[in-house]
Amino acid sequence: MIRYFTAGESHGPELTGIVEGIPAGLELSEDYMEQHLVRRQKGYGRGGRMAFEKDRAIIKSGVRFSLTTGAPIALSMVNLAFEKDKSNWPKVMAKDGKRGDVEKITLPRPGHADLVGYQKYRFDDIRPVIERSSARETAMRVACCSISRKFLKSFGIEIGGHVIQLGPVGFNNWEAVREQADPLAEKGAEAVYKKADKSDVRCIDKELSHRMREEIKMRRKDGTSLGGIYEIIVTGLPEGLGSYVHWDRKLDGLLAQVIMGTQAMKGVEIGLGFESGKTHGHNVHDEIAYNGKFTRRTNRLGGLEGGVTTGMPLILRGVMKPIPTMIKPLQTADVETKEQQETRYERSDVCALPRAVVVAESVIAPVLANAILEKFGGDSMEEILARYNRERNDEKQ
Ligand code: EPS
């Protein structure tokens, strides 16, 4: 079973990751991980920090002669902000000594983890909450999860995401998305992200991309922020992953958890999702056909029935709330004086949705990799691939 942990603060010296449970014999390089790290850093609506961070995960253990050894893989990524930013981060984030003249942050941003984190850990200022709840941590998450992505690729499983709604701008309905995304996904889901990556808002529709960019521009001027909805497609999944017999092994439940475990996410749906509750059954269920193998005539349930993969592409959507750090202030209460105040502006992005697409593509990868390991498991890639190919040839098609 693959597990991973991340450690590190947004303005600390570095982010650290440990990935455990990757079988031996998987080809892995820092350059491979960097592809996805670079993708995560791009996107219209980002603030100034991305202009100088150069995310690269350095492999510290678990890989020898370009192949994983089965041992835990340790990764390290420096935060250039720590030394290069104009601020005094080594002093603010010092691990030794006492606070001295380091300023206390006492104004919690509504919608952020600031106040709940302060209350939960009984800190004397909000800084430790800001540092760990920051989406900076997703840089290491993408690095850790890209290893599972590489694992999945060995089985022909591809992941690709795109933005379908940004604030008020988006595709009209499910069919409008399918019309553009499905022909790309037919070539493998990576074609979806490759097309989306050509747009700096990660939208595969040119006209919508333009309108989304204009929306960000306008909201930046207003001093506010934006969220939106992305869709992730996974192709090449075999049927039969997951469980309909155990609630805690249902694949849709496990996928929802990792999406909701990501900063700023407020909802997740599979296939038609919430729309399926607004219509009748004949508009929802996918008719079954057999053309050499079982298939579905449509894919409105998004590749999962009963928490088990159908062999159709997996379609998952997530909604991200607008960033809580905004130029135009909101009302808050000072945690020390309890006085009503306006929030203070800190450097921030206006919209992080294009980057959240890459994070979502990444976090689902270990869940899917574990589903493969559960069914076809083994200790080395050679062993797992042999089992996978044998069972796939035997299976009831
Ligand atoms: C973030 C605030 C910004 C973002 C950061 C997340 O950082 P700073 O406060 O240093 O300007 O740039 O995201 C990243 C650094 C990243 O790599 O994604 C926040 O408050 O969540």
The small-molecule ligands in this entry are: ligand EPS
What is the strand tally? 17
**Low-confidence segments, ≥5 residues, pLDDT <50?**
none
What number of structural domains do the residues give? Answer: 1
CATH architecture level-2 label: 4-Layer Sandwich
State the helical fraction: 25-40%
What's the story with the biggest beta sheet? 5 strands, antiparallel
Structural class: alpha+beta
The CATH homologous superfamily: Chorismate synthase AroC
Give the strand order, joined by hyphens, for the main sheet: 8-7-9-15-10
Which fold name corresponds to the CATH topology? Answer: Chorismate synthase, AroC fold
What is the percentage of strand-forming residues?
15-25%
User: What is the chain-wise order of helices and strands?
Assistant: EEHEEEEHHHHHEEHHHEHEEEEEEEEHH
CATH class: Alpha Beta
CA(first)-CA(last) distance: 27 Å
Highlighted features:
397 residues, alpha+beta, Chorismate synthase, AroC fold, 5-stranded antiparallel beta sheet, 4-stranded antiparallel beta sheet, 12 helices, 17 strands, 18% strand, binds ligand EPS
Describe the structure.
The chain is of the alpha+beta class. The chain has a single domain (3-396), classed as 4-Layer Sandwich (Chorismate synthase, AroC fold), CATH 3.60.150.10. 34% of the residues lie in helices and 18% in strands. The strands form 6 sheets. A 5-stranded antiparallel beta sheet has the order 8-7-9-15-10. A 4-stranded antiparallel beta sheet has the order 1-2-6-3, covered by helices on one side. It has a two-stranded antiparallel ribbon with strand order 4-5. Helix 6 (138-153) crosses helix 11. The protein binds ligand EPS. Ligand EPS is lined by residues 10, 47, 49, 53, 81, 134-136, 138-139, 325, 346-349.
